[in-house]
Amino acid sequence: MKNSCFIVLFLLGIIPPAFAQLIGFEEEVPEAFTVSGKGEVKISSLFYKEGESSLEWDFQPGSTLDIQIAPLSLNARNEKQFGITLWIYNEKPQQDSIRFEFLNKAGEVSYWFSYRLQAAGWRACWISFEYMQGDKKDKKIVAYRLVAPQRKGRIFLDRLTFPEKKMNLRTTPDQQLPANNGLSNRDLWHWCLVWKWEQQSYDIPLPSKLSSEQKKELKTIEQRLTDFLEVKKAPQGPINAAYKTFEKAAISPSIAGTGFIGTPIVAPDEQDKKKGEMSWNDIETMLSGFAYDAYYNQNETSKKNYFTVFDYAIDQGFAYGSGMGTNHHYGYQVRKIYTTAWLMRDAIYKHPHRDAYLSTLRFWAALQETRQPCSPTRDELLDSWHTLLMAKFISAMMFPDAREQAQALSGLSRWLSSSLRYTPGTIGGIKVDGTTFHHGGFYPGYTTGVLATVGEYIAFTNGTSFELTEDARKHMKSAFIAMRNYCNFYEWGIGISGRHPFGGKMGSDDIEAFANIALSGDLSGQGNTFDRGLAADYLRLIRNSDTPNARFFKKEGIQPAQAPQGFFVYNYGSAGIFRRADWMVTLKGYTTDVWGSEIYTKDNRYGRYQSYGSVQIMGKGNPVSRAGSGFVQEGWDWNRLPGTTTIHLPFNLLDSPLKGTTMARSKENFSGSSSLDGKNGMFAMKLAERDYENFTPDFVARKSVFCFDNRMVCLGTGISNSNADYPTETTLFQTKYNGKEPKVGEDNYWLHDGYDNYYHVVDGTVRAQVAEQESRHEKTREITKGKFSSAWIEHGKAPKEGTYEYMVLIQPSASDLDELRKTPAYEVLQRDQTAHVVYDKKTGITAYAAFEAYQPATDKVFVAIPAETMVMYAKESDKGIRLSVCDPNLNIEEKTYTTKEPSRPITKEIRLKGHWTLTSPMENVRLEQQGEQTVLTVTCQHGQPVEMLMENK
């Protein structure tokens, strides 16, 4: 039973004024609640949103429901945090409002708002004082009241909290309270914009009639969708779950003659699971299970239950125009409502409540957003594509009028095409380098599912007038190609894993999407009937699976592609991907624009070092995987991700100091990768730790990795910090022990990670071990154990200007290993705080990481390279070279969680010896002869290398 007697204590001054709790109105009307004018207030069991009763207010014109409170003093700060939350049941839609007024000691109104009564059923009433009306001059509130409209009627109140001391920041504007949150005017928020979008109108006219071709296209799309969603047999598990949940819901008609009573349905933020309260996922469980049983088994009881649940959900607030207090992330809990509504569409069309069902489906799918093109500044697109694109599509296809289907589908395709533009800054979507952004960063974990869903839409609309634009599909292709490049076979490296360090991979639906986009047309510009490159990638990724698309591609002569080969630059993620044969290396740093790791309350608690210059090799397993390559969580030392330079902390200090989310960005901007001819590359970073609790803010280092064929040269200088309690180290490797010892022969400076990769340390004190390790689980902090082979370079406690140099040979042949143990394949030309410069003898490449302005006295080509620049070159002919220049800095002006501010161009001026010319003119490259030197001016943007061919005259 709920306790309402606290109000009396409140009035007696026994409870502090700021105290508040949920009032459920179970036993009697609280003494603080009285009626002025004609009317009555009483406890009622006709409707309830908590417990088994609510507060019924029967009103007459001009009457008020008055509530006395202990004095509440507001100020500029708590005015934003404090507010009121409750639910109101209205039996019949009206065109008027209930006015809430908050009074000062003199009885004057300081704050007020109007709550619209345009919908029937339970609707939330959540609003902070910040978004209320009124002069707000006297901020000391002693009472509040509800003012009745100018008519006779009644409403029911439940789940009242006043004052709510910490208003939900994601409070959602809706038909009842359209101005209860300023986030609705923020471009970067999307869940709470559903009512704002509802005010939009289509600028695509409704056709007066459809041509026979349009009708045929719609039928084709309808059949494709049906073929995709239908299964051979009704799944019994979901059906059983529907009946079990339905029993707990205890839905029955109210004796009032309209509406229902039963288990409350609220948003997860409000849900009390201990009381058995339900949320959107329970609606999904019931509707989807009953739909399967009704559709496949023609079960009339399930059909009846389906519509009972739908009616109840609408009555509880899952309805058109309702935000349910807060609706954030609802898309993840409603997807099967839509896929199974498609199966039930004929029954829905025949139902007397058809319009209510369809308007609910459209509203919660946010189909209304697609009445206009996608805003260029729209954020968090991956969430929308992943969770609501199918819902939007099904809602568009469920208009009973084919003309409205065509209009909605045209709007949706236009919206999706426009949303697939390359997005600016760090807002969500696809970047020019193919990386996909969520939470303001490069996030493969949120990309899976997105590729699948957009790929499915491409397949549904392929060959029709509703298909996506070619530009949109090309942008999607770039995201597919990027994922192909940074996954091996299906999995990505820990450095780019976000808050799931040992999780995430391409799923079968993502792989099938490669075929879907390939079949949408040749995006390579070669004029074929389909994209043969993507088709070859698809055949590689499905391995031996026999699918209709695989059979078609093979019939067309397509062979499975080889694994990606080369070096791939992804500086929107401060990352580089180095690949040969079947192995892959992920190199990762971070900057002022790129966060280093995502840490949540219950995710990735020890993930601080993911981007401290990690160099992770994934090259073993069938197929290749993290685990197959020796990376498993049980016993994993979170201080020792390969390649990183870290302070080796105990786990209680490594655990994020923030209880909530940590997404630390660097104080430096020079971190990322570059390449030459797409085959070889480099990575460099200025490492600088942030000033947080248990961090060491003066911890700095300069790191580089030079990647040639199957060799990596790793250099470090300036490793310094003041932490005298714990040692600083650079990890060579940490892999699950597989019986192979780390030492190679009697040489302590040649090591082996057990997975066919060899390490030669040239500078540094080496430590190696095979040990049973005790660690902590990244989510639960529970103890985990495992046996690992590890090696690292020890820099000591509180190092000053520490250095290292080592070479990694990735899966060399026996002859390669023997040769390179005798004769080094590279030469370090400079290794200090100014620059790291390496010459590779086998490829002939010289690569420069210029941390500061670099003016070499004896360089064959360069007189000067500006600070924070990566340069690579190799001879292309007797007088010609291939040269690349890169500044990985995205150069985004605004530094915040996400920004729509774009990457700005950066000009680099490089001086070369002699008179050089470009073999072909380039827009972003300019040459000027100055005496015996050539001034090369390169404009860099988006962190992308600028590559050119030059000749020395």
Quantity of strands, as a count = 42
- What is the arithmetic mean of pLDDT? 95
Q: How many independent structural domains?
A: 4
Shape: globular
Work out the radius of gyration.
32 Å
Number of alpha- plus pi-helical segments: 20
Proportion in β-strands: 25-35%
- What percent of residues adopt helix (DSSP H or I)? 10-25%
What's the CATH topology name of the largest domain?
Answer: Beta-galactosidase, Chain A, domain 5
- Counting helices, strands and paired strands, the structural category is alpha+beta
Q: How would you classify the quaternary structure?
A: single chain
Strand order of the largest sheet: 21-22-23-24-31-28-27-26
CATH architecture of the largest domain: Distorted Sandwich
CA-CA gap between termini: 92 Å
**Could you describe the largest sheet, including whether it forms a barrel?**
8 strands, antiparallel
Domain Lyase N-terminal: 21-178
Domain Polysaccharide lyase family 8 C-terminal: 827-889
GO molecular function: carbohydrate binding; chondroitin-sulfate-ABC endolyase activity; metal ion binding
GO biological process, one term: glycosaminoglycan catabolic process
